[in-house]
Design a protein that fits this description.
It is a single chain. By secondary structure, the protein is of the alpha+beta class. Helix content is 17%, strand content 19%. The strands form 2 sheets. A 7-stranded antiparallel β-sheet has the order 2-3-11-7-6-5-9, covered by helices on one side.
Length: 250
């Protein structure tokens, strides 16, 4: 049964990886998926968890496709805090691919309705509660359908999309803790009718509205593998290196 489930997950992955990176035109489930291999360079080592002071993040104005607001008066994190990471989908039957179409990100394959949770403690940056994606349209902020992005206390942005629901009370400016429910997995946006969570890691850059960066700029798989096994591998150094090299231009 485990073999059949894994085979099924990989088949779904091949179908969906093409869709999430589609730049226009209806997506055919029969087309050959385009897998982009991660860079051969080894990500820079991240600082040990809790080894540096973490500033309290803030949110700015969002683009029209998303909901955002100034940070609430929720308590800010301590000046120095131990960063905890958790796997972003809380379910037993989960699979993900190490590659993605067109840009670095990961599609986490899971049944619709499963728990999408905060990767780490932080502040909600943006939410999208309406699926405004039109099939065949050009790439844009509506690709993700229902989505949530947070700015972790480690200074990194974490983004999940194609959700079926954004949890009540999850609004821009609200503080969340690692493992807190943000929404439910689904197939909104350009998910090609396959239940999964599109997952991206990036620097906050403009914090809201910069959808090309928000959707993902570094490969998440190595971090996901660590978190799934209870590890604390941090993407901070890898994200900082990308930002320094690219100046937030995705």
């Amino acid at each position: 049964m485990r073999f059949l489930r894994t085979l099924s997950g990989l088949t779904a992955a091949a179908v969906c990886l093409t869709a999430c990176g589609s730049s226009g035109g209806a997506v055919s489930t029969a087309s050959t998926p385009l897998f982009v291999q991660p860079s051969g360079s080894t990500p820079a080592s991240a600082p040990a968890a809790g080894s540096a002071a973490v500033p309290a993040p803030s949110a700015t104005t969002a683009d029209p496709a998303t909901s955002s607001a100034p940070p609430s008066t929720s308590p800010a994190p301590p000046a120095t805090t131990e960063v905890k990471y958790v796997f972003p989908v809380d379910a037993s039957n989960v699979d993900f691919h190490t590659t993605h179409s067109k840009y670095p990100a990961t599609d986490i394959f899971v049944d619709c309705g499963e728990r999408f949770v905060a990767t780490t403690s932080g502040v909600v940056l943006e939410t999208s509660r309406a699926d405004n994606y039109v099939e065949g349209s050009a790439d844009g902020p509506n690709n993700g359908g229902l989505s949530v992005s947070i700015l972790g206390d480690d200074g990194v942005r974490y983004y999940g999309s194609h959700l079926s629901k954004v949890q009540s009370g999850i609004e821009a400016g609200v503080r969340v803790t690692a493992g807190q429910l943000l929404g439910r997995s689904g197939k909104t946006g350009n998910a090609n009718n396959v239940c999964h969570v599109h997952y991206g890691i990036s620097p906050p850059c403009a914090k809201t509205g910069d959808w090309k960066v928000r959707r993902g700029v570094i490969w998440p798989a190595t971090f996901l593998k660590s978190w799934r096994n209870g590890g604390r591998k941090s993407p901070v150094a890898t994200v900082a290196a990308w930002e320094k090299k690219n100046d937030c231009k995705a």
